C-alpha cells in the first residue's frame, strides 16, 4: 500500500477502534516546519506500514513549538505491530533531520460521541481545538457522563458559536481522560467564541456550570492547532 495525502482525517469514521494522541515539543516555529517536512519525507519514502493504521495526521501548535499527532487504528494490536516493525526507522529519519525532539505522553482513546456538521456543510477546518480533561482515577462511567453533560448543555444553549464545525469526544481507554477534537473554521472564530462566553464555550447556565465544575476533574487544557499533514493508505500495491 502506498501513502496518500489527504485534506483531513474523519474522526467519526466507524472502522476506527482506537485513536492515539501525543505531542512533540520541537522548540521553535522553524523547527515545527522542519519536523513536519521530515515527517512527510519519512512516510512518503516508505510503503504504508500496516493495514490497521487508518489515518495519521499532524498539527502545528499555536504556541510555535508543539506538534500534535493524531492517528486512528483498527485496534491496539495494529498499533503494537507498527511499533514493533516500523516506528523506529521513521523516527530515526525524523530525529536525524531535527535533533532533540521531546516526545510527550501518548494516550489511547476510543471515540464516544460526535457533534457532527449539518448535512450540506462543506466548510473545511482551518483550526483544530484540542480540549483535554483529566479526572482523579479511572472511572469510565464518569468520563461518559461528563461528555453527556456537555451535549446536554449544548442542546439547551440558545447561542451556538459562529465558526464551529464539529466536535468529537474521545474517552481514554484507561478511564482517566477525555479529549475533544473540535473542528473550527479558524482560530479567530474560536478566540471570539471564548471572548463572548467568558469561561469556555457556551452561555452562562447551570448546565454549563455543571460541566465546568464537574466532580472529580483534576486538570486539563485547551490548545489550538493548524492542520499541517494528513495521510492514509493509498490504493497502490
Spell out the blueprint of helices and strands.
Blueprint: E1 3-5, E2 18-25, H1 29-44, E3 53-61, E4 66-73, H2 76-97, E5 102-103, E6 107-115, E7 127-135, H3 140-156, E8 164-172, E9 177-184, H4 187-197, H5 206-212, E10 217-233
Helix pairs in contact: 1-2, 3-5
Q: What count of domains describes the coordinates?
A: 2
Mean pLDDT: 93
Oligomer: single chain
**Helix proportion:** 25-40%
Task: Characterize the structure shown.
- This is Antibiotic biosynthesis monooxygenase.
- It comes from Streptomyces arboris.
- There is one protein chain.
- This protein is of the alpha+beta class and 237 residues long.
- It has 2 domains: 2-108, Alpha-Beta Plaits, CATH 3.30.70.100; 111-224, Alpha-Beta Plaits (2-Layer Sandwich), CATH 3.30.70.100.
- 31% of the residues lie in helices and 35% in strands.
- It contains 5 helices and 10 strands, in the order E-E-H-E-E-H-E-E-E-H-E-E-H-H-E.
- The protein has helices spanning 29-44, 76-97, 140-156, 187-197, 206-212, and strands spanning 3-5, 18-25, 53-61, 66-73, 102-103, 107-115, 127-135, 164-172, 177-184, 217-233.
- It has an 8-stranded antiparallel β-barrel, surrounded by 4 helices.
- The protein is globular.
